[in-house]
Write a structure and sequence with these properties.
alpha+beta; OB fold (Dihydrolipoamide Acetyltransferase, E2P); Dihydrolipoamide Transferase; 4 domains; 7-stranded mixed beta sheet; elongated
Length: 507
């Protein structure tokens, strides 16, 4: 066993702080390979491995203060099998006690899964397990939240959760490490020591974290306060390189935060009595993204809404006549959404600019209809896409919408299921809305708003009769869609719904 000790630190320097470990217990090391970095008041000192082998134990953890010649770690010979298998939280005595089982312990990293196209980071929302808990293979460990969907992360192996690298609230990049699982039955060896880790990690939370000495000196020279520097060391400890990063990019901190919902006026002071009865909750990434995208749509597009109303008598009679046969044959209920989807696909053929989008100085006309269907969930609005809706029948459309609705409410939608929409339908009528002006979903150029069906007196052939009526609203981007095209689109939708035979005759 080879000892790794603190080297001579220089004249009048008697102690240093362990800044960073580049290796963890169980890692193979080469002679003279850098193991860790120490920080003093004056310099940063790198500590090389005195011999080749396996890092068996880290004695001085990151953030600890050590004197000259103090023991930092131990290295076992390359051929020794027992030492490398031990978790880094075990003491030397525990390692000797567990030696007969140690060869069976294999550490497996839990990584951030693929998040989807154009999504580079996520927030750790919830951990379902804590350090020391036994986990089964494919059992859910945690839930990540991205701008669009929630992603559950299963355990890649059965064993014991020995370390949580990214706690709740942390922002993680794609393919980042989330946790470590001690694999197999021998993982229980790692559990007792690992279970103590949260308590040890939580200890600094109640007191100020001591920043690195070299960081203090660098902040003083740069005229920066600790509040202006984001620490990347243990428990948020500020390191020398953090100060350098803050000096180079003093305004870069907001880049890693979720953009808050746009606010025109800062919040006014609140009386103490009112403040005591309020609750402040951080916006989820999904809600923040919804707020940003809708505000961007208002700021970018020339939004305009045109209205019409449709007599739903024909659709309701057709649905009542065939809903039982439809469900018996196709295994799904016949709702109203498939009629609206087909009517919109029909109208988009005549007014293709409503199905187009602006890309710089170009207009992209799409010879397909990927229909977005807005779905309300407890976490916010999501828009799954029925791809090639213009080529599908009523049954297929109803099945996909029903499946998407259930998956949306369960938080199971994938990124691919919500991308690529060319037009959107939003049904506020399910919540009782009688009239509204929906906002387009960029980069789309149009969205149809459905509303509540309400009996109203109408004049038909000179007679006043009661008919089930619905207001329709088409919001569109006036930069690409003219008023004539918008009105024509809405009239075609109205005609197709009031006489569904037009859909069969392509009229």
């Amino acid at each position: 066993m080879t000892e790794v000790r603190v080297p001579t630190l220089g004249e009048s320097v008697s102690e240093a702080t362990v800044a960073t470990w580049f290796k963890k217990p169980g890692d193979a090391v080469k002679a003279d390979e850098m193991l860790c970095e120490l920080e003093t008041d004056k310099v940063t000192v790198e500590v090389p491995a005195p011999a080749a082998g396996v890092l068996a134990e880290i004695v001085a953890k990151e953030g600890e203060t050590v004197g000259v010649n103090a023991l930092l770690a131990t290295i076992s010979e390359a051929g020794a099998g027992a030492a490398p298998a031990q978790p880094k939280t075990e003491s030397a005595a525990a390692r000797q006690t567990a030696a007969p089982q140690s060869n069976e312990v294999k550490m497996t990293d839990v990584m951030v899964p693929t998040l989807g196209e154009s999504v580079s980071e996520a927030t750790v929302a919830t951990w379902f397990k804590k350090v020391g808990d036994a986990v089964a293979q494919d059992e859910m460990l945690c839930e990540l939240e991205t701008d669009k969907v929630s992603v559950e992360v299963p355990s890649p192996v059965a064993g014991v959760l020995t370390e949580i690298v990214a706690p709740e609230g942390a922002t993680v990049a794609a393919a980042a490490r989330l946790a470590v699982v001690a694999e197999g039955a021998a993982g229980a060896v790692a559990a007792p020591a690992a279970a103590a880790a949260p308590a040890a990690a939580a200890a600094p939370a109640g007191k100020d974290v001591e920043n690195a000495p070299s960081a203090k000196k660098a902040m003083a020279e740069a005229g920066l306060s600790a509040a202006q520097v984001t620490g990347t060391g243990k428990d948020g400890r500020i390191m020398k390189e953090d100060v350098a990063a803050a000096k180079a990019a003093p305004v870069a901190a907001p880049a890693v935060t979720i953009a808050p919902a746009p606010a025109s006026v800062p919040r006014s002071p609140v009386p103490a009595d009112d403040a005591a009865r309020e609750e402040r909750v951080k916006m989820t990434r999904l809600r923040a993204t919804i707020a940003k995208r809708l505000k961007d749509a208002q700021n970018t597009a020339a939004l305009l809404t045109t209205y019409n109303e449709v007599d739903m008598t024909a659709v309701m009679e057709l649905r009542a006549a065939y809903k039982e046969q439809f469900e018996k044959k196709h295994g799904t209920k016949l709702g109203f959404m498939s009629f609206f989807v087909k009517a919109c696909c029909h109208a988009l053929q005549e007014v293709p600019e409503v199905n187009a989008e602006i890309d710089g100085g170009d207009i992209i006309y799409k010879h397909y209809v990927h229909m977005g269907v807005a779905v309300g969930t407890p976490n916010g609005l999501v828009v799954p896409v029925v791809r090639d809706a213009d080529q599908k029948g009523f049954a297929q459309i109803e099945k996909e919408i029903a499946a998407y609705g259930k998956r949306a409410r369960d938080g199971k939608l994938t990124m691919q299921e919500m991308q690529g929409g060319s037009f959107t339908i939003s049904n506020g009528g399910v919540y009782g809305s009688l009239m509204s002006s929906p906002i387009i979903n960029p980069p789309q150029s149009g969205i149809l708003g459905m509303h509540k069906i309400q009996d109203r007196p109408m004049v038909v052939n000179g007679q006043i009769v009661i008919r089930p009526m619905m207001y329709l609203a088409l919001s569109y981007d006036h930069r690409i869609v003219d008023g004539k095209g918008a009105v024509t689109f809405l009239v075609r939708v109205k005609e197709a719904l009031e006489d569904p035979r037009r859909l069969l005759m392509d009229l």
